From TrEMBL:
CDD domains: CBS_pair_voltage-gated_CLC_euk_bac. The gene is CLCN7. Residues 112-148 form the CBS domain. It comes from the Eukaryota. InterPro entries: CBS_dom, CBS_dom_sf, Cl-channel/antiporter. It comes from Xenotaenia resolanae. This is H(+)/Cl(-) exchange transporter 7. Pfam families: CBS.
């Protein structure tokens, strides 16, 4: 586990996603998706988990909308688009995103897993280890009693 946790907002700026995926110090393959519930410094609430490979496919197919027109429907992806990229997803360095596209927004809601496996803060390490082994998990999100 690393701290601070690298999270994405449910509706995130394309430039932020590209910067996170391009950051060589973090090679995470899964990112918690959060929604900010209040304006103060309170931690955001977990609403899902999205994989690096999914984000790369979304960027490759340019599934985002301009900031000024966020009400427009974005390009729809098919399951086939994700299958075609599997198992050799392109590296983030091969995805070109222009400066204008970096200002666009991406809604992760329909692509994220809305029910990722989670454990409370107080969960013991042996229990976490058993979960990883028994369920074959790659990602496990640790949350507090208010799902933050």
């Amino acid at each position: 586990m690393s701290s601070p946790v690298t999270c994405l907002n449910r509706i995130e700026k394309v430039g932020t996603i590209v910067d996170i995926l391009s950051n060589t110090s973090t090679n995470h393959n899964g990112f918690p998706v959060v929604v900010q519930v209040s304006a103060d410094d309170e931690p955001a609430k977990l609403c899902g988990l999205i994989l690096r490979s999914q984000l790369i496919v979304l960027l490759k197919h340019k599934v985002f909308v301009e900031l000024a027109r966020t009400r427009l429907t974005q390009r729809k992806l098919q399951l086939k688009d994700f299958r075609d990229a599997y198992p050799r997803f392109p590296p983030i360095q091969s995805i070109h995103v222009s400066q204008d596209e970096r200002e666009c927004m991406m809604d992760l809601t329909e692509f994220m897993n809305p029910t990722p496996y989670t454990v409370p803060l107080e969960t013991s390490l042996p229990r976490v280890f058993k979960l990883f082994r028994a369920l074959g998990l790659r990602h496990l999100v640790v949350v507090d009693d208010e799902n933050r």
